[in-house]
Design brief:
The protein is 68% helix and 8% strand. The chain has 13 helices and four strands. Helix 1 (3-22) runs parallel beside helix 6 (92-112), helix 4 (58-69) runs antiparallel to helix 5 and helix 10 (164-175) packs antiparallel against helix 11. The longest helix has 21 residues, at 92-112. The radius of gyration is 21 Å and the shape is globular. 31% of the residues are buried.
Length: 270
Amino acid sequence: MRGTSQASRDAVLKAFEPVASASGADGMKLGRELFVVVDALDGSGSLRRALTDPARDADAKSALVKHLFGGLDSRVVDVVGDFAGHRWSEDVDLAVAVEDAGTEAMLASAQHAGHIDTVEDELFQVQRLLEGERDLLVALSNRSVSREVRLELLEGVLKGRMDQVTQALLHRAVEKVRGQRLITTIKSLVQAAATRRGRLLASVVSAVELSAAQRARLVSILTSAYGREIQLNVAVDPEVLGGIKVQVGTEAVDGTVLARLDEARRRLVS
């Protein structure tokens, strides 16, 4: 999503954020109802075009939203109407943006319950599991296999031991792979959880397990470098060359860069 669609998505989600935060435990309900809207949009090209037609009056589009989805929570109707009132480069971008709102509502419920860190960690652990189990990843991503079979396979992985928000988001990811790989969708969920906590996500792959002191030092280096609080997600892979790989957002940071940053930080404080 780029340009006009990205700007519209960001503007509506910014306005929706305090609504999601104030929803408390209702965030799960809002998320599920927003996903209902997404499914309706995915299933009807004519509906997407009607709600994204730039020649159509915003009030008329809002009235259509109320007519079709008036039985849902008023907060859901309001945010979908807000989305429809903005401009979109492609009609499919509207469904993607509403999906993002549903994700944010569910993450807000986890934050309200004090579980957002747990959800982020669980999502990351599933990401690492699937990255190491290619056959499982392919099976969960195979759209020629029925939804029921894929979800049953996912349940065999989760074993009912994860937070309800984690399970709901992963169920959704397996159900609706929106034009991207499943692993990419899960990574975006991890990123969304970190952002919800106000942290910059740093994904680390190390040849050996990092000690608590090494983790603290790495967080200190990255916090100094980026000027923001860092959420460190660490995975172990013995095949990592050079001992460690670090990804901050879309930026890869190699070990030599980290060494230079650490040296500069120590010089500044000495």
